[in-house]
Design a protein that fits this description.
This protein is an alpha+beta fold and 158 residues long. The protein has 4 helices and 8 strands.
């Protein structure tokens, strides 16, 4: 089963939870809550049943999620193979526009050669990729916008 992120905002601030209630609220196994307890989630007291305060639980989950983030400095894209932000190979990046003002930056990793992707706003490309050659690809045309119909049609005219 794939690991997924827990939504810490499902935990109510002014409520106390037992291990089973917290696991049910966050849709995780009770062993996961016990593992969090080993990693620093503090119960209200040392008595049984073990109870957790909602505000401290939410703070613990938010802190653990933010500690796992790896923000990319300018001029780098996160490489999933290297697991670190890497500069693009040969300083070349391609921007593929999407809907609205956003699109995808695509480049090759300088270290391992893997294709890297990063979501970006058109107006912020110069701040995200300073001193790099960013080629902006034209968006593909839609079928409706074409002047001539496709000639690959099996329908015969009568």
């Amino acid at each position: 089963m794939l690991a997924r992120r827990v939504n810490p905002y499902r935990v109510k601030l002014h409520r106390s939870y037992s291990v089973a209630e917290l696991a049910d609220c966050l849709q995780v196994h009770t062993h996961t809550v016990r593992n969090w307890q080993g990693k620093g989630l503090k119960p209200i007291d040392g008595n049984r049943p073990t109870l957790f305060d909602g505000s401290s639980t939410r703070a613990f989950l938010l802190e653990s999620q933010t500690s796992q983030k790896r923000p990319c400095p300018p001029g780098t894209i996160y490489c999933f193979k290297c697991r670190t932000p890497q500069p693009p190979a040969l300083g070349m990046v391609e921007f593929i526009p999407g809907k609205g003002a956003t699109g995808n930056l695509t480049a090759l990793c300088d270290t391992c050669g893997t294709v890297m992707h990063r979501r970006a706003n058109v107006a912020k490309i110069s701040a995200i990729m300073p001193r790099l050659a960013v080629q902006i690809r034209q968006a593909p045309s839609r079928l409706i916008e074409r002047a001539l119909p496709s000639l690959n049609c099996d329908k015969t005219k009568d």
